[in-house]
Amino acid sequence: MAEVTYREALRRALDEELDRDERVFLMGEEIGRFEGSYKVTAGLWEKYGPKRVRETPVSEEGFVGAGIGAAMLGLRPVVEIMTINFILVAQDMVVNHAAKIRYMFGGKVGVPMVIRTPGGAGAQLTAQHSQSLEVWFAHTPGLKVVAPSNPRDAYGLLKTAIRDDDPVLFVENLVLYNVTGSIPDPGDDFTVPLGRARVAREGADLTIVAHSYTVRRALAVAERLAQSGFEAEVVDLRSLRPLDVDTVVESVRKTNRVLIAEEGWATFGVGAELAARVGRACFDDLDAPPERVGGAEVPMPYSKPLELAALMLEDKLEAAARSLLAESGLVATGGD
Amino acid sequence: MAVEIPMPRLSDTMEQGTVARWVKHEGDRVVAGDVIAEIDTDKATMELTAYEDGVLLKILVGEGESADLGTPIALIGAEGEEVPESDIAESAPPAPPTSSEEAEPPSTEAEQREDEPARSEPVDRPQPTGEVRASPIARRIAAEAGLDLRELADTGSGPDGRIVKVDVERALDQEGGLGRAAAEASIAARAASQGAPPLAEEEVVDATPMLRAVARRMSESKATVPHFYLNAEIDMGRALEMRQELNRALTGEDERVGVNDLILRAVALALVENPKFHRSWHDGKLVLHKSAHVGIAVALDDGLVVPVLRSVERKSVREIARESRDLVERARSGKLKQAEIEGGTFSVSNLGMFGIPSFSAVVNPPEPGILAVGAAVKRAVVIEDAVQVRRIMAVTLSVDHRATSGAEGARLLASIQRHLEQPLLLLAQE
User: Fold this and answer.
1) Last-in-domain residue among B115, B150, B170
2) pLDDT exceeding 70 applies to what percent of chain A?
3) Closest residue to B165, CB basis, from A291, A323, A328
4) Which of A36, A80, A305, B408 is the most buried (most CB within 10 A)?
C-alpha cells in the first residue's frame, strides 16, 4: 500500500501497463517532454521513449482517429485529451467511429482504446473550459465511460480500461488530481471491474448517488447530515456505462429515498437516468420522489461569485438532501 | 392572488430592515422595476424595487417601523382585489423599531423559501377527492400491517399532507400505546366501579409486535368477515390404523407421519374438489384458488403464527410430514421467511393435543375458511343399530359467508370426512 495523489495513481497505472504489455502506447498533446498539462505522464517519455509516448499536434480529430486505427490493427492506445472540452472537435471519431466499429464490422474488429481526459470546474476557467460532458458519451452504445473519485479506483479502473477490448472514455477531474489516497502495490495486479458501483458510506435514511469529484462532496454532506442525526448512504457509481443500477436499487430499498448529484447540468443527466431506473425498480420502496441536483443550467461564469453560485457545491447538495428528508417528515434532531 | 413583498436582504449582515419611506402608497400602480420604498439597513438606505406589476394593495410595515428579513412588508395584487383578512393576520407583526434582541425570529416560511435549493416549484394540485395521498413505501408498510391509510388521511407529514413512512410507523407504534392507555383506563374503571382491586396487583406491559399483529388481524376478521360454522364428527379409526402401519414401515424417527399431516392432505384434496368453496372475497371480486396452500396454526410461547404449506394437493403424505415438521420447527425458532406466512388459501388449527374435544376458530382473511380440529377420542357410536366404540374427531369449519355458502361448506366438510374415513384416498396419487 502506498499513499499517493490521484495524479500519481494514474501515472503508476500507465507505467505498469506500458511495462506489462508492449502493445500499449500513449498519445496526446505535450505528454512527452512537458509531461502533460496535468503531469500525469511524468517521466514516461524518458522511460519508454518517443515511440511509445507520442506527442501530437493540436489536432484532436486527427490523433483520436490515429488511435482508432492503431487499436483496430492490434495496438492498445491510451489517448490523452487535455480536457474534456476539447474532445468535441473529435466527436465524430469518438461517437461515429470508436463506438461503432465493432458493430459496423460485424464484430470482426474492435477498438481497444482508452481516451483519458479531465472534466470539472471551479478554477475560473469559464464557460468553454469548465464542463462535465461525460453524459454525452454515456448516452452512446458502444462506449464505456468511467469516472473514478479516488486514487485507488483511478489506478484500478485505468488498468482495467487499458485491458478492455472496447473503447473506454476515462473521465478524470481537475480538482481530483491532488487528492491523496492509498493504492495497492504493483505486485498485487489490482484492478477494479468496469460497471461496478461502490458504497462509499453506509446509512439508512437517504441514498446519495454521485460520481467523480461529486462523491467527495456527497461524503462531506453525509458528515454534516450525521451531525443532525441523519445517516446518508453514499453510492459512488465509478462507471456510468455500464451503469450498476443494482447497487443503487439495493441501497434505495434500504433507505427509501434517493438524491442523485452530479457536477454537470442535471437536465438529461445521470440523475435523469437513475431517477427513471429507480422509479421503476423501487416504486414500492420510495417515500419521496427521486430528487436530483446538478450545476446551474448556464454556461459557467468567469466571475468568482457567479462561478460559486453556479457550481454544485456542498451547500446546494445539503439543502437538496434536507429538503428530501423534510418531504419524508424527517426533521433535524440536533447539531446544526 | 396578492403577492407578499418580503423585507429583502439588502446587505450581507443585515438581520432586519427599517422602512425609511414608502415611495408608493396604497392604491398606487406599480410596474416591475419601480422603486416602491426606501429601506434602512444596518449600513445604508437602499431602494426596494418591485418584481411584479400590479397595485400596491396594502402596506404592512409603516414608515419608521422595522421588520425581520423575509417578513412581508406589503402586498401587491390586481386592481380592486380584496385583501383577505387572513393574509394580514398571518403576516408576522412588525418588529419594534428599537431593540433587535426582542425581535421575533424570521418566520420559518420565509427561511424555508430562502434555503430552498434550485428545485422545480411545486405544481398546483387539485384538492384530493377522498383519495388518500401516500408514498409508495407508506402504502406498502400499511398494507403489510393491515392498517387502513384512510385513518391517517390529511395527517401526513409530506408535501400537501402526503402520508409518508414515518407517519405509518408512528401510527403502528401508537396502536401499542393506545392499547396500553385503554387497558389502563379499563383497569382504572373496574377499580372505580368495584371499589376493590388495588392497581398495584396488576401490571401493564406492552404487547409484542406479534401479539399486536394477531390482535389486529383477528379484530379485522371478526369485524368484517361474516362467519358461520359447520360441525362434523369424523371416524378416525381407519386413518389412525393406516398411520400406525405407515410409521412402522418408516424407519427414521423424523420420517413419522402425524395425524395432522393426514388432515392437511384430506383438506387439500377436498379444497381442489370443491372450487366453489376454494375462493376468496376481495372487494366485490372472487379470487379463484387453483392450488391448496394450507396454513398451519402454530402456537408459540406467547403468540401464534400460521406458516403456509404450498400446493398440498400435489404432495405425498410423507412430503407433507417432512415439510410441515420443518415449518413448525422454524416457526418455533422464529426463522420463518415473510413469504412463508403469506398466500394461504385455507387454514387448519388443531388443539387435539391439548385434549380439547371441539372448538371453533376465527377465519384468517382473505382465506375463505379455517378448520378447527379437536382430539380423536373413543366414543360410543350407533352403527347399524349396534353400539360400537370408535375414535371420533370433532371438527368445526368456520366460513367467510361472503366468499361461499353453507351448502358449499357442507360439501367441503363431507369431502374432508370421506378422505379421512377412507384413508387410502390420501395415498392414491391422482
Assistant:
1) B115
2) 99
3) A328
4) A80
User: Which residue in the set A285, A319, A330 is minimally distant from B117, CB to CB?
Assistant: A319
Beta-carbon contacts below 8 Å between A and B: 58
The one catalytic residue among B227, B278, B282, B401: B401
Domains defined for chain A, CATH in brackets:
2-188 (3.40.50.970), 198-327 (3.40.50.920)
The C-alpha atoms of residue B71 and residue B92 are separated, in whole angstroms, by 6
| Interface probe with A: pick from B119, B137, B140, B163, most Cβ of A within 10 Å | B137
Chain A residues inside the 8 Å CB shell of B118: 293, 296, 316
User: How many whole angstroms separate alpha carbon A170 and alpha carbon A56?
Assistant: 19
Q: Compare CB distances from B136 to A283, A291, A323 and report the shortest one's residue.
A: A283
* pLDDT surpasses 60 at B91: no
> Three-state DSSP class for A262?
strand
Domain co-membership, B100 together with B159: no
Residue B138 sits in the same domain as residue B253: no
CATH number at B167 reads 4.10.320.10
With cell 506527442, the residue in question is A55
* Domain presence at residue B168: yes
In angstroms, the separation between the Cα of residue B117 and the nearest Cα of chain A is 6
Number of domains in chain B: 3
Which one-letter amino acid corresponds to residue B364?
A: N
What CATH number is associated with residue B331? 3.30.559.10
At B342, the pLDDT band (50, 70, 90 cuts) reads confident
Q: Measured between CB atoms, does B377 come within 8 Å of chain A? A: no
Instruction: Write out the residues of chain A at the interface with chain B, using a CB-CB cutoff of 8 A.
Output: 256, 283-288, 291, 293, 296, 316, 319-320, 322-323, 327-330
Angle at B353 (CA atoms; ends B266, B426), nearest 5 degrees: 15
Residue B423 near chain A (CB below 8 Å):
no
Considering the domain architecture, whether residues B243 and B392 belong to the same structural domain is answered as yes
Evaluate whether residue B404 is within a structural domain: yes
pLDDT digits 0-9 by tens, A210-232: 999 999 999 999 999 999 999 99
Cell numbers of B411, please? Answer: 360439501
DSSP string, B210-253: HHHHHHHHHHHHHHHS-EEEEEEEEE-HHHHHHHHHHHHH--SG
Q: Confidence class of residue B123 from pLDDT cuts 50, 70 and 90?
A: very low
Q: Are B10 and B77 in contact (CB under 8 A)?
A: no
pLDDT over 90 for what percent of chain A?
94
Residue B43 DSSP one-character state: S
Residue B77 near chain A (CB below 8 Å): no
> Per residue in A81-106, pLDDT tens?
999 999 999 999 999 999 999 999 99
Residues of A in contact with B140 (CB under 8 A): 284-285
Buried b (16+ CB within 10 A) or exposed e, A155-168: bbbbbbbbbbebbb
Give the domain extent around B185.
130-206
Q: Is A97 a catalytic residue?
A: no
Provide the pLDDT for residue B40.
Answer: 84
B135/A286 CB distance under 8 A: yes
